[in-house]
Amino acid sequence: xxxxxxxxFYLLFPALVLYxxxxxxxxxTIGAVILCYLAGMLAGNFFTFPEAVAGLQDLLSSGSVxxxxxxxxxxxxxxxxxxxxxxxxxxxxxxxxxxxxVAFAGYMIIREQSPHAWQLGGMAVGLYTGGTPNLAAIKTAxxxxxxxxxxxxxxxxxxxxxxxxxxCSVAQRLFxxxxxxxxxxxxxxxxxxxxxxxxxxxxxxxxxxKNFLPLxxxxxxxxxxxxxxxxxxxxxxxxxxxxxxxxxxxTLGIACSFIPAVRRIPKTFQAGMYLIYxxxxxxxxxxxxxxxxxxxxxxxxxxxxxxxxxxxxxHALLCRIFNIDTDTMIITSTSAICSPPFVPVVANALKNxxxxxxxxxxxxxxxxxxxxxxxxxxxxxxxxx
Length: 385
Known about the structure:
By secondary structure, this protein is mainly alpha-helical. It has one domain (3-179, 220-384): Na+/H+ antiporter like fold, CATH 1.20.1530. The protein is 74% helix and 0% strand. The chain has 19 helices and no strands. Helix 3 (32-46) packs parallel to helix 14 (268-285), helix 7 (117-127) packs antiparallel against helix 8 (132-142) and helix 12 (241-257) runs antiparallel to helix 19 (356-384). It is globular and about 65 Å long. The relative contact order is 0.21. Mean pLDDT is 84; it is low at 193-197.
């Protein structure tokens, strides 16, 4: 597959997926997110990509999310979200307690099989409260062997995709059996307009003149938000660049939502979601299934799987005790395990845009605390066990 063909595939295949979802109810049941992930994984593992594909994948995955976030936030009802913030913060605290507990248990299980168990424990805590930037930072701080880091990162990529697919398919229905259902905080009598009044997955009329021209303006604002955020990140140490950029994009995107003329631009949420579908397609194509199954490091694979799904189950049990609803639990678990860029993916699958800000907000908290927790846990495991 040539580079030009690959670019066309990444940018236009989500449009085909959306058409199929619109045209065939059975396909729509699966969902655009899952289809983009699966198509990406199939393409990445069964087609030969150009040697320079890594740079393109990094550019598209980071760029699509960076532009999508402000577009998704322009139409948000911040007043409604503020009534959810308390439960979201509590749920993030419970998610943190869950991963620390499960990572310790996982360390105890594999410490005889792997001399790197104490490092894996700390990297898991940092990774599953913040994200990949935390994992990379902790790797450097603890002088983790590069092969161990690459192996853990590879397994995390694949297992996390399975985790996302679970959240985007049956998780909400399952957890609704023993957690409270989400109660909307939106005012149904509101006539303020904007994307809050649109169907979350409706692309009808997006190319009409009354929608498309304002949408181009919204894209221009999103580019300005991204540029300002990248400029601000340059003022801070490089290791904090990703966290600062996402924090700035979120803050400026929310600020724009207070401008009525911006908030009322139709289809900004849908445009942002299209970029998220591109992100899903690219990330799916980066999963190396051949590497996963050819040279299996069973202690690390078992440890990663145990941390992801073990912490999810413990988090759900704690949310049951503290009466936290299903959607809030799922979105904060997503922001902790997979980091903020995956929040819109899951929120869209849940048909609930109200929880996006909660996921981004708690994900930024995770970025902030992940390094401190991860490094501290590693040294505690090494010193006491």
